[in-house]
Amino acid sequence: MNPVVSTYIVQGIYGITYGMILFLIASGLNIIFGMMGILNMAHAAFLMLAGYFCYQVVQITGNFWMGLIFAPILVAVLGVLMEQLFLRRVLGSHVGELILTMGIANVIVAGIKKIWGTESLPLQMPDLLSGMVSIAGMGYPVYRLFVIGLALAVMLFMMLLLYRTRLGKVVRAAVSDREMVNALGININLVSMLVFGVGTWMAGLAGVVIAPILTVFPGLADQVGMDAFIVVVTGGFGSLQGAFIVSIIFGLLSSYGVQFVSQFAPVLIVVFMAIVLVFRPNGLFGAKER
Amino acid sequence: MMNKTTRIILWMIGILVLVLIPKLFGVYYTNMVVTFAILSVFALSLNMLLGYTGLLSFGHAMFFGFGGYGTALALKHIGGLGLLPAIGIGVLSAVVLALILCPLVVRVSGTAFAMLHLAFGQLMYVLALKMYRVTGGEDGIANFPVPGILTESLKNSPENFYYMAMIILCLCAWMMWFFTKTPFGQIQVGMRDNANRIDYLGYKVPQSKAVIYTLSAMFAGVAGSIYGLFLNLVSADGSLGIVMSFVPIVSVMIGGVGSFFGPILGVAVFKMVDELILRYTESTELVMGIILIVVMMFMPMGFMGLINLLKKRIKAWFVARAEMEKVS
Amino acid sequence: MNILETRDLHHNFGPLKVLFGVDLQVEQGERHAVIGPNGAGKTTLFNTITGTYVPTSGKVLFKGKDITGYPPHKLARIGIGRSFQITSTFTNLMAFQNIRLAILSKDGIRFNLFRRVDRMKRVTEETEEMLRRINLYEDRDTPVSALSYGKSRALEISMALATDPEMVLLDEFSAGMSKEETHDAVALIRKLTEGKTVVIIEHDMDVVFNLADRITVLHYGKILATGKPEDIRNNQDVKDAYLGDLEV
Description:
The complex is a heterotrimer. By secondary structure, chain A is mainly alpha-helical. In chain A, helix 6 crosses helix 8. Helix content of chain A is 75%, strand content 3%. Chain A has one domain. Chain A has a two-stranded antiparallel ribbon with strand order 1-2. By secondary structure, chain B is mostly helical. Chain B has one domain (26-327): ABC transporter involved in vitamin B12 uptake, BtuC, CATH 1.10.3470. A two-stranded antiparallel sheet of chain B has the order 1-2. Chain C is α/β, with parallel strands linked by helices. Chain C has one domain (2-246): P-loop containing nucleotide triphosphate hydrolases (Rossmann fold). In chain C, the strands form 2 sheets. A 6-stranded mixed beta sheet of chain C has the order 7-8-9-4-10-11, with helices on both faces. In chain C, 44% of the residues are buried. The chains are: A mainly alpha, B mainly alpha, C alpha/beta. Chains in contact: A-B, B-C. The A-B interface holds A 86, 89-93, 95-97, 99-100, 102-111, 113-114, 226, 229-230, 233, 237, 263-264, 266-267, 270-271, 273-274, 277-278, 281-283, 286, 289-290 and B 50, 56, 104, 107-113, 115-116, 118-120, 122-123, 126-127, 129-130, 242, 246, 249-250, 253-254, 257, 283, 285-286, 288-293, 295-297, 300-301.
């Protein structure tokens, strides 16, 4: 095959991989916002924490898969604890909750620096996933394909959860009208807790799969968090398909952007967001003001 | 209620203290007060939106940065430009930016308003990073001349700089306070409470928002301009980044969103913690994080709320005591 | 002369038709009540007149001038005020500040950034005068959120009147009030609307027949009858559709 075309394809895969990771993070952020109206500024910090947990698990057991399974669950538990112990008790406004989650993000970052230092820590991907696979005469990086597959699986799982279960029905109802669901006698606190857990778990998963690509370092949250935040904003708060489409667009914009207009790749993304918001202040698929 | 004489005396004492600070405390603390005043004006300008109009902006640093860049660029490229015109150019650029954004942003509120500002803020930030021929990219613009008003240059005379900065900043703070007392300030508060009713009473809501928005941008521009002059440096991360947008939000929330002086108190807490942390521990994030958590959980109205509560308690205690004495 | 007139007013919410060609006519200086069973479209009619909704079709005329689709602030400036069924005041502000906002609007003081409002003697006096008239002077420094229901309702109504409109529309001012509170409110409205045109939506038939000079009966988005209270009382259509149930 033409080498130029194959470069484009590989570049595309890189873009889609990043897009899928963004989608994992953004959809977690999204369901939490949709459910509780909380802009969780600690989301990216949880993601980073999962990366470090995974690093630690790999250090101890030497097994990436153990990290992949346990690190996200661990941060999900922490996320639920945050919701139960802190967020639920904040009096006053949503801005107050936002500042609180910012405080928690700060504490997490401080803890990470204390325990693991500020160095960038490498995370080996397992042998099974390293290297290239050859399809139709072209080499593809296995790990990226794995990430894409995993993200798709999670997405499918989310769809099933949201559209095929009673819990999903309640969550979707609560997103559109919280009071109503409360009035129906559903234990909304329990549902909130579950949503927070699942949302944080997704962030954790993203943190683990991104770790072998970017390594783990204390600035990871800022770097990835801002991108995910932009995705949610552009796609529309509370909208999963918005998050999906925009994630992929962003992934591709950033990978092809780097190739063609390397200097201005970040500008492309932000310009895209600004243009979308000018015409649709609530994002591409955002509902009207809640 | 204070009577007029005590109030005048208190004002005199306050002004005297401000005048004497550079004489008494040396360069380090003098500069600290300048930073404090700059951030206070910045936080007050944000509070015009957040506290008095109920609009949360994630991109207020835009105006701060435009003030800084405007002034720095003017001083760098226009030889012999005076200080006040340079500040004026900075403020004007912030105001022009606000006027351009006005038609877009005044029609939305809530989350959409916040996000639109995040978008524009990030756009300005990335542009400042990338257009390095104009803005100096990551390094920013440094070492531009800082002319004095009466003296030659303010670069090596922190005392003169202090007086210049404090006069302008205090004037700004006073103006913002005054605005809250005017009829327009009342309309602003009404809009925060119930924009719909304000409309039915015969006030134009979008236009009123636009005026507040532009004023807020103007004061942020003043703060940013003086900040740039103070550091003799304007950079994307230092003046325009998302971190700079959150500084005033956090200050306002810590200090107390419901009152005029809350933000100043918030900045004071912010600076004090900064100062103490640097001396005793390296973990700024930890301490700052814990403060944010504790304040939001236990003091929803911030430190100002706490003070008001204490005032009420003490008053109630005195009243109770007086009654007790009457009975006995 | 008709001060307010609607011509063939229609309004839909998506597929749901609420108003089917309403021709309301309100005479200058009268107190006009709009009554009708729940879901008849009374509040929608108010909302299309006062700029909350733009009617799907039809016209609204005020003193012969087409005001269809005017936004609320524009209506307020040409002399139309309204109060809300669900109290809509500035709950974090004091009673005094609430009324003062209305007075400021009446005096055309809007973008003044150069004088302290508490030093504006005339505004303060007018506000205090209004507070006295509505018996809220003692509560002037109470935040509205701390006022009793009756008092906050009184404030709601008097804010609509404090801008000194020529015509005022009151949406169920007695909603949720006790008998006694309603009685006071009726007296208050009589006092404050001297010489003004008043349009009310009301459920309480005692209030309607006590206060209104003329009555319009709305039924499923159409006007069933308009006339003097005694005519309405004796109108067979109205009896069949509505009043019969209430045994008036």
